[in-house]
Amino acid sequence: MPSPTESELIDLLLQGDNRAYHKVVTTYYPSMYAFARAIVGDAIADEVVQESWVSVIKALARFERRSSLKTWVLRIVSNTAKNRLRKESRLISFEDLGSKDSSDSVDDWFDIKGHWTAGQVPHNWHHESPDDICASEELRCELEEALLNLPPQQQAVVTLRDMEGLSFEDVCKILDVSESNARVLLHRGRTRLRLVIAEHDKETR
Amino acid sequence: MMSCKKVIEKSSDYVDGQLPLITRMGMRMHLLMCVHCRRYVRQILSTSQVIKLLGKKQQQCIDPSKIDRTVAAMAEAKNPEEHQDKPG
Predict the structure, then answer these.
(1) Count of A–B CB contacts within 8 Å?
(2) How would you class A136 by CB atoms within 10 Å of its CB: exposed for 0-12, middle for 13-18, buried for 19 or more?
(3) Global confidence as pTM
């Protein structure tokens, strides 16, 4: 349920209050952009966000306020982005969870009994605290790039769950995926990004 | 006993508190005894926290003209008659 202030904001939006439009757009644009970019790439992410806002205004009277405004808005972004992909015949690659990308396989880390193989054990990191890790601008850039290069669905889940802090329930509502799929996607995305940190740590010893 | 491979597979779910009790306890037992998996799980947790921080740092100011354009489009969507050119 939206908080009281959020309810008031929605009422103002329904009345066409320009300041409310401004406030809500300024508040949610960064999250919407990050999420749209995961699905459609950064060339048209802005367009998708702007189209989504128009849809939000048109549909707002029908919003039943059972979820937060943010979740509902992101759901609209998801639909707008997917429609865009459909138009450009790119939807298939977004929804293709099936064929596991070979770079997601960690089978060769383990022997037949499921124990770590000697050369693959995780090494100790110089820095384990997020603040210390993010202190390196070089690593931050590598991570941002790696995030943008994640397969779209992994990128979408990682963005919504880890970056935006949304619950799994909301992530599933927004992306229209099952919870088990969402968890697999999140795990794969984090696994790839962990590797970026590990490699950087190794190289900067 | 859970294998290391199984533990790593479930590491994200573990740090997110998404595992049923029995599985969680099996993981904990394994982690007590396995330094490699313990390290990996800590690193996956760090990774998720780093991603969150990255998001915070990325919240730069959106170009105001984008905001203005968006607000204008919303106003027009709300009241299309008001934005049509008057006949004359």
Answers:
(1) 138
(2) middle
(3) 0.87
